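Trying the structure run again after the queue cleared.
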Amino acid sequence: MGLRVLAVDDSKTMRDMVGFTLRNAGHEVIEAGDGEDALGKLGNDRVDLIITDINMPRMDGIALIKELRAHHIHKSTPILVLTTESDNSKKNEGRAAGATGWIVKPFSPDKLLQVVAKVCP
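Done. Tokens:
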């Protein structure tokens, strides 16, 4: 049985790549263009995993993670950050907000699936 994954990125190309990779592995993917869009699409629904970019318009990934962690439904949902940011201060900010893991773009589909399998055994 596949996972239900929310993929948040302002780049449609990146959402398509993440969605394609996860769907091919048997997962259901909900796509959102930024943090506000993600919260709107998620509502009170549960997902098994959230993958988010950091740098997005309207609501960035750090703000989204904080917002999700404040909601009881998403308090323990694994959240992976998928971003071009490899800076340690950004990683620390992401961890402090509640991110579970960090993948630097560009990513390989195999690497993404390995990390997904690790955080959602």
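Strands lie at 4-8, 28-32, 49-52, 79-83, 101-104. Worth checking whether this holds up in the mutant runs.
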